[in-house]
Design brief:
Order of helices and strands: HHH
Oligomer: single chain
Strand content: under 5%
Distance between the termini: 52 Å
Shape: elongated
Radius of gyration: 20 Å
Number of helices: 3
Number of strands: 0
């Protein structure tokens, strides 16, 4: 197994993590580890923002708009 990391969390966060762990059938430690792995995973811009494709609408004369 890996090294141990200790964090401080308020009661509300711990409660939410415990509920998430129970719902997924995983331990609290496995749930937190999964969340952290997903948070620091290197993903391409397409994977991070792909869900936004086609959702931007600009004014008709957007080429002339100055920001």
């Amino acid at each position: 197994m890996g090294t141990t990391i200790t964090i401080r969390a308020d009661a509300r966060l711990r409660e939410r993590l415990e509920k998430r762990a129970a719902a997924s059938g995983k331990s609290l430690s496995a749930t937190v580890r999964e969340i952290l792995e997903n948070a620091v995973a290197e993903r391409s811009l397409g994977r991070r923002a792909g869900h936004l494709k086609g959702s931007l609408s600009l004014p008709r004369n957007s080429a002339r708009t100055t920001f």
